[in-house]
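Thread: Modeling a multi-component assembly for a lab meeting

Hi all, long-time lurker, first post. My supervisor asked me to bring a structural picture of a complex we are working on to next week's group meeting, and I have zero experience with this. I have the sequence lines for every component (496 residues in total). Could someone generate the structure of the whole assembly? Inputs are pasted exactly as I received them:
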Amino acid sequence: MVARSLGLMSDLKRTPLCAQHLQLGARLVPFGGWEMPLQYSTLTREHRAVRTAVGLFDISHMGKYTLSGPDVLAQIQRLVPSDLARLQPGQAQYTVLLNEQAGIIDDLIFYCRSPEHWVVIVNGATNDKDRRWLAEHLQGVHFDDLTGTHTLLALQGPAAVETLQPLVDIDLARLGRFEHAQVSLAGKPAFLARTGYTGEDGFEIMSLEPEGIALWQSLTAAGVPPCGLGARDTLRLEAAMHLYGQDMDESTTPLEASLGWVIDWDKPDYFGREILLAQKAQGTERRLVGLTVEGRQIARHGYGLFDGEQQVGVVTSGTLTPTVDRPIALAYVGKPFAPIGSRLEVDIRGRRAMATVVKRPFYRRAL
Amino acid sequence: MALEYPEELKYLDSHEYLRVEGDTVVVGVTSYAVDQLGDIVFVSLPEEGDRINRGDSFGSIESVKAVEELYAPLSGTVLSVNTVAVEDPALIGSDPYGDGWLIKVRLADPADELGETMTAEEYRERVEG
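Re: Modeling a multi-component assembly
Sure thing. I ran the full set together rather than chain by chain. Output:
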């Protein structure tokens, strides 16, 4: 083995919960410019906690904005392929910011408080880029960046409702998937959304720093296990949720990334629309697929996929997951190899393993 | 988790340990390495009878987080391979100094080759600073 360099931690940003993480024995690693907890106990234990009961994540590194003004809806409609005009107050939409070439600038969630008032949550590593893009393309919109003043916690798992219910003043059973509300949480205001990145039921909770720290402390003291980025990655991959910068970036369009479901084909003009229409008509040359891999070795980011001697694709994310207990991966493959059931070989550091294109997600929770 | 470094072993800065038994040496990875790797899911090792050379890769150890090469701390012939650990790599994580050993090697030259090892105390200072 070789000693691995973890980079210069001193240049990294820390969330307001960093002291809590250290106190809980977290191993901290650099992630997208932030020093973040990788795990507190073990990745497998944290993963299973979220699948079977509940787990708590600090995701305060994510970008958090509010957009307000009379003309907000018309302006944000130009930036995304989803029809945000369909949203009622209290509803949210996962979508992508597109550039003029239909390349994905980021994936993000727009939460509609009202047509004049939106909450937007974006990836931590792309926060600066997104903020610049929005500033450049939104006129007359009041933009408020909450990233530095607010925490964001994710409480995820089948026991999330019963865990959180005693702390809030609304009936959580009445808050549907992807719905959100302004609530009183332990007597303080909080933004509560039934969203997440694990494939489980759960909530994302945004509040001012002191309230976020208090919530973290009260939940962990009550026995909710804190979970790190390691479990977050295996959970999201089982649910076939994409990681920006790894499974998609500005060189991929939503159709190539198998995110066609976020596109409303009838909505008015937006960046990249002509290119998406052309791709829809002609099909894309490559697309993101799910793979299962034979054996126990993990097909990791960057590993090549082969049909005989011809390289026909590349792995973007891979892991061996606690729930499915076999190697799974996301990969871009050429059109002929995208259908379910296609057989390919993945080059794992010089050795070939058979891989099969399978239906995504790899894991789906029982409803 | 409190990490242990048994006194009777010799340690490499690449996080392998050596248990010297006459002219044979048992090679494994330290509890520090195991702790850094996290859940171990796969290990590839040489075959019995293979010749390994000091400094060369003799296999790899893989966790969900990362893959690390295993480097031979000495030159010799592989006498036996821990096939139980190959079948159940979690054993390396749960018992690195016992049932989770990796290979047993007969030294090519018993008089040589073990010069650059550390004692348990030196290794502890190195990894825990």
